[in-house]
Specification:
The complex is a heterotetramer, with 2 copies of chain A (110 residues) and 2 copies of chain B (463 residues). With 110 residues, chain A is mainly α. Chain A is 76% helix and 0% strand. Chain A contains 5 helices and no strands. With 463 residues, chain B is α/β, with parallel strands linked by helices. In chain B, helix 5 packs antiparallel against helix 6 and helix 6 packs antiparallel against helix 7. Chain B has a 6-stranded parallel beta sheet. The longest helix of chain B is centred in the N-terminal third of the chain and has 30 residues. Classes of the chains: A mainly alpha (110), B alpha/beta (463). At the C-D interface, helix 1, helix 2, helix 3, helix 4 and helix 5 of C face helix 1, helix 2, helix 3, helix 4 and helix 8 of D. Bound molecules: NADP nicotinamide-adenine-dinucleotide phosphate (2 copies). The site of one NADP nicotinamide-adenine-dinucleotide phosphate has 32 residues of chain D, from helix 12 and strand 5.
């Protein structure tokens, strides 16, 4: 195994644990936006698509790369916009916000 | 055009923005900001990549970005709120498709040059191809099921499990060949892709339409892993980190979603196989229901002080959100108070009822979470159940043999009186009888929710 | 900046976020054991101490390395044992455990 | 003796064990297992290092491990439970010391060989030295304060802030010199170390003894960062990962601890400077307290049905845990029920009361967390407050100008009657008056808690 691979594995493992610990107790209303927001992040493959399309590897790579960019960009742009639209619907009402503050004040250290 | 180390640091910054964004997405106050922070990270990653030294031609890239963004933006702007889950599924599918294409392009390019790739790169490549392909076709099937282009019922056929096992074995075999024999003929690769695409279809077909949100969350996790594998292939850290983040958070999210429905992930994925069709333990024989008329129900609602409305999947089917709001406004104008009780898994996707009622401009502070309102049912004069069934089924509390036993439910049965609007006596998603309907305090108002609600409104107006 | 340094920074940043997200809502009874358990982990510097002491860098490094090993080992062994002793005192009673189960059953998905 | 890649993978496994262990340490059910998992990770890291190719002589290493382990084990076995915080502080200090030594040894070794180190390695080295040194001496001061070898009060002198600023400037200056001039004379390095050690002392001196648990948690975080810096110096991943883990989790933990006391971290660290000595807003002038006698209190307790005992710091001072248990047993034998109400920051370290009462074998299921018992005070015949003060001060609920306003407190004032045992009318940790003592339902039983409790026991036995 070469250096870079091991480095990649280390980073992969750490990020995996990090991802798992990011999602704690999410209210169920946010499940769909969270799913869709995470989906947009998985569009990061756009980076790979750009590198394939732009590296001048010949026509085959360019074509595949082009389609990959279109796909990934749909995922990215669509994903973030859809999430934003959903969240716009879930604006917090003043009442709920006040309740939260009260809860926090009542001691959120358990 | 920027030095290598700077590129890596900037990619790291992008990854940190994803991390911050995802964390903030998990809490209502910060969710929207979190999404934007995450989008900023993506923008940074794209800009940094544009500056990468390996990139020599920009034409294709710019064209692809413009086309893809336009399609994505159009889809996001025009989709109906209630079609969100299938939309997310579709977007997720194309994301997986992108990973599939990138990994394939890398593979074909190194074939072309005749360079022998090391086993670990070959391994990541084939894994990226496999997972990307499964994500692509799996998501398309999920989309089709939710869009009702194909039946929402689990699709099974005899020998399906044997077929799937063989399919999987073939994929593993071909993948191994590709990894360990750098001179494997090219057709092997294409057959490998074909079988992987088929696998995605086969995995999702036997899952019921109502479980698709969970499937999409899971496929989302897959597409993250596919991106991470692509990252190993092209040795790019930001792909590895972000892919792994999505990969693990997606799995956790799908587990949380299952738990809210009181089911296990494996039950969702493989439940259709070998399931002895659950006999509902309580059968309805010998029990009768009280029915009521529009006129009668209208009078009760018109003079009620406290009304709690329990919306369910039937409200979405009937698309009666505007009518329900009209009725509520009317009751309030006559001096009563109306609250909506939102069960976490009412409908067919998390937040379904919130989205639906928000569409009809129901004020957000009239929507109450289960835990906040459950104590108030006892003081309610009428609980108006509109197309909900499982989420108000008392068997979840009382009958250990019921498939929904243990799921927290809304206490509609504790109200002074319950009016249940549905078309007939059919069961809900869980396919079981509901004792509430036979309760002496319950009155059934049969008919399509939209129709009944409109009639109630005009009836009350005349009082 | 060289490869290894950047790799180190990446890993450092990921681990920092991970550490922060590991500590969520900890009941206050566990603050002291958690502090002491984390303290034991910081004894990982034992690895550095061993490399310095054993690399044959000359007497100065050996002496400093030896002292460093003793210190780090005190931290490690003492830290883990003290934490264990404390936690032994905080055994869960059946009552509390049952209450937890009840809470979990009542739906922990908010 | 093992290949490089395998070493890195095994180190990664060790890091994952730390991660799993720390996560499990945060929840009561899994805490003990988590600690053991983490210890396993450390064992793995040590074994892997023993197999590192760079290690040529084992004598020193084995000797150091044996000596260090023996001392550590001895300390851990013999320390009294109530001295845990200072013990942890001391261990943390030597951990920082180890990082200091490793970084110094690397620096001196490269000096010796006359190789010029790059700026980034020099930077990590000096940071490791600095943080390691601060951790070492800071922890020692914290230890001395908790052990009452020096006064627990904040130690301040005029010009202290100027002095500290100059000290810090000197450290930054010398550090910069060392980083950017590879030919800096050797004395610069030793002066740098000396000043860093002094800084550790100066930072902790002005902090009050009762805040030491927070300081130790923070220094713990520092020692993690020092380890991570050492990792950069010797280019070892497991040091970087584990150090960063501890570095950030330690900071979060110290913030959580501050929040439980309703204070901010910066208030803890710098509160002693420029603090206008807080005048307690309510003064006691004109109010009188009711006192009671042993005989009277004994009768009340003997015939009470529901007694809630509220232990506080005074119980620890008096070391009266065994007497309190004896009294409770006696009341229970006579047919009453006794519960203990545990405030999260009662005493001087988190879990102080739990440890103390566990030492006297008080059954764990008689200890109730604040949230679980606060509703029950109204139904209690007697709330017996043993050496607690701030944690039962109603000003936290009612007086916005009070320094403890907003801290959740135990509702001892809601009980039918409260008996408060303390030596006199001195204030508690927060230094403020307590209205509860002047309440008409409250009776003061003055005297050392241990003495009063023993007398109560013998009195009740004679009834
Ligand atoms: N929210 C999620 O994320 C999610 C995801 C997957 C599965 N689920 C599951 O879905 C279920 C949701 O419960 P629920 O109570 O909302 O719905 P439900 O139990 O599925 O019941 C819906 C009821 O609405 C009635 N209905 C259908 N169309 C109607 C119309 N046009 N007018 C009036 N009534 C109509 C149906 O009865 P008739 O046919 O007799 O009218 C049916 O009994 C739960 O079991 C949950 O676990 C939820
Ligand atoms: N738990 C933690 O982690 C932590 C850490 C740092 C600070 N703190 C702070 O410490 C405080 C803890 O509150 P607390 O109510 O437990 O204690 P407290 O407010 O400090 O009061 C302790 C009381 O015990 C009395 N006492 C002392 N020795 C006694 C003896 N031998 N016999 C009988 N009584 C005796 C003292 O009054 P007399 O002198 O009149 O007898 C004093 O008023 C809080 O303000 C908290 O924020 C806690």
């Amino acid at each position: 195994m070469n250096e870079a691979l091991v480095g990649g594995i280390v980073v992969f493992v750490l990020a995996t644990y990090l991802g798992a610990s990011l999602i704690g107790r999410v209210p169920s209303t946010l499940h769909t936006p969270l799913m869709s927001g995470a989906n947009a992040v998985s569009g990061i493959t756009i980076v790979g698509a750009m590198l394939v399309a732009g590296a001048g590897f010949g026509w085959l790579s360019s074509v595949l790369g082009f389609v990959a960019i279109v796909f990934a960009m749909m995922n990215v742009v669509g994903g973030y916009l859809v999430t934003d639209r959903m969240l716009e619907m879930f604006r917090k009402s003043p009442r709920a916000a006040a309740a939260d503050v009260a809860k926090a004040a009542a001691g959120d250290d358990k | 055009m920027i030095p290598d180390y700077l590129e890596r640091i900037l990619y790291l910054v992008a990854a940190v923005l994803f991390i911050t964004g995802l964390r903030q997405l998990g809490s209502p106050d910060t969710a929207r900001r979190g999404n934007r922070i995450s989008a900023l990270g993506m923008l940074l990653a794209i800009v940094v990549t544009l500056l990468d030294q390996a990139i020599v031609s920009y034409g294709t890239i710019i064209a692809g970005i413009v086309v893809g963004s336009a399609i994505g933006a159009f889809m996001a702007r025009t989709v109906k709120m209630t079609s969100m889950p299938q939309m997310v599924g579709l977007l997720n599918g194309v994301g997986g498709g992108a990973s599939l294409l990138v990994a394939s392009a890398e593979f074909l390019h190194s074939e072309e040059r005749g360079v022998a790739v090391t086993a670990d790169v070959a391994f990541s490549t084939q894994l990226g191809v496999l997972i990307g392909a499964v994500t692509l076709t799996g998501s398309i099937i999920a989309f089709a099921k939710l869009q009702e282009m194909i039946t929402g019922r689990p699709i099974t056929f005899s020998g399906q499990q044997v077929f799937n096992a063989l399919l999987f074995a073939a994929i593993v075999g071909l993948g191994g060949w590709l990894i360990f024999d750098p001179n494997a003929p090219e057709w092997v690769f294409f057959v490998f892709i074909g079988l992987a695409l088929l696998l995605g279809v086969m995995l999702v077909l036997p899952i019921g339409g109502a479980d698709m949100p969970v499937v999409i969350a899971l496929l989302n996790s897959y597409s993250g892993i596919a991106a991470a594998m692509t990252g190993f292939v092209i040795q790019n850290e930001v792909l590895i980190i972000s892919g792994a983040l999505v990969g693990s958070s997606g799995i956790i999210l799908s587990q949380i979603m299952c738990r809210a429905m009181n089911r296990s992930l494996s039950n969702v994925l493989f439940g259709a196989f070998g399931s002895v069709v659950q006999q509902s333990s309580k059968s309805a024989s010998g029990l009768t229901v009280n029915t009521t008329s529009i006129e009668d129900a209208a009078i009760q609602l018109a003079y009620a002080q406290n009304v709690i409305i329990v919306p369910g999947y039937g409200l979405a089917v009937a698309q009666a959100q505007h009518q329900v709001r009209e009725l509520a406004d009317l009751i309030e104008k006559r001096g009563g108070t109306v609250k909506y009780a939102i069960h976490p898994v009412a409908g067919r996707m998390p937040g379904h009822m919130n989205v639906l009622l928000a569409e009809a401009n129901v004020p957000y502070d009239k929507l109450f979470d289960m835990d906040d309102i459950n104590d108030q049912f006892e003081r309610a004069d009428v609980a108006l159940v509109v197309g909900a069934n499982d989420v108000v089924n008392p068997a979840a509390r009382t009958d250990p043999s019921s498939p929904i036993f243990g799921m927290p439910i809304l206490n509609a049965d504790k109200a002074q009186r319950a009016i249940v609007m549905k078309r007939g006596m059919s069961a809900g998603f869980a396919g079981i009888e509901n004792e509430l309907f036979y309760d002496s305090k319950t009155q059934m108002l049969f008919g399509d929710a939209k129709g009944s609600l409109s009639k109630l409104v005009s009836e009350i107006k005349q009082l």
